[in-house]
Amino acid sequence: MPGKKLEPRPAAKTRSIHDAPGILVTGGAGFIGSHLVDALLSWFPTTRVTVVDAITYAANVENLVNARRSGRLRLVRASIEDRALLRDLITPDMLVFHLAAESHVPRSFADPDLFDRVNRLGTRVLLEAVRSAGAQRVIHFSTDEVYGSRLSPADEGSPFAPTSPYARSKADAEGEIRNARNAGLDVTVLRPSNVIGPRQHKEKLIPRFIELAQSGRAFQLEGDGDQRRTFLAISDLVRAVRLIVQKGTPNATYNVAGAETFSVREVARIIASAMEKACRFEHVADRPANDRAYLLDGAKMAALGFRPRTGVQEVVREIMTGDRGAHAALPGRSSRMSIAAA
């Protein structure tokens, strides 16, 4: 469904920022969002961060324990579909990070309307609120799945070929972004690989496999188990966001490719080895849209100086030892950032 067109407005003047006047993070109590919140509070050591999160099953307020200690976090439990609330929260010149989304592919087949409403319509509502408030910059988190299954790496100009309701809803959200850009908003889009790390919900591949191994059960392989995924450590994604905030081009889109690509079967073997467990497999029925591979061309991010550093084995160790994100910048460990606003 096409998004409602936004009328153009005059662009704001270019200026320098030494500390963001305000930051809003949607979905900030989730896996990726909470790591980003920790980092933002360190990068901008005098700035308040407002988190808007519906606190659904995949979010956890405990993810924000470190952030709350900063004294600069405001957590608002609400849906991004709440137009009036967003208009009250977003202020002029605010830096907005949009992560709120439904993201589990199998769930998207059970309730595609929910995914469309939250991921596409929610993005439109947020962009309208940003425009109404006069905020100038949004950084939107999309996914590599918009490109569909590929045997060769997709660059940022590659056509979309989503195969699941989840991927389709994220592709449609980018349609809303195109309208917003045409109306004068600066919206940066990130399309990351499969992000992994501490705080990830147990429905996702690596936490689920770790849980199976801990309980002595066989690894469940959907189909043949040879589907390949590129894995991006959350610490690497956070570093990529910092580079984009500092050096990114206005209205640009960036693939953020991970360090390593493995089949699902290979991931199981890595986890079994790390946990010193027998590697037993149980084949179960394949799920819909279980694409063979997602591959990204990361040259555009490399030009900003980004290189992924952290591999799957290291992330597995972090999760196994209960590390909930000590590798991320936390409040009290300032690494002040200067950025330029478009």
TrEMBL record:
InterPro entries linked to this entry: NAD(P)-bd_dom, NAD(P)-bd_dom_sf
Source species of the chain: Nitratireductor aquibiodomus RA22
Residue ranges of the TM segments: none
NAD(P)-binding domain span: 24-318
Organism superkingdom: Bacteria
Protein's UniProt name: dTDP-glucose 4,6-dehydratase
PANTHER family from the UniProt entry: DTDP-D-GLUCOSE 4,6-DEHYDRATASE-RELATED
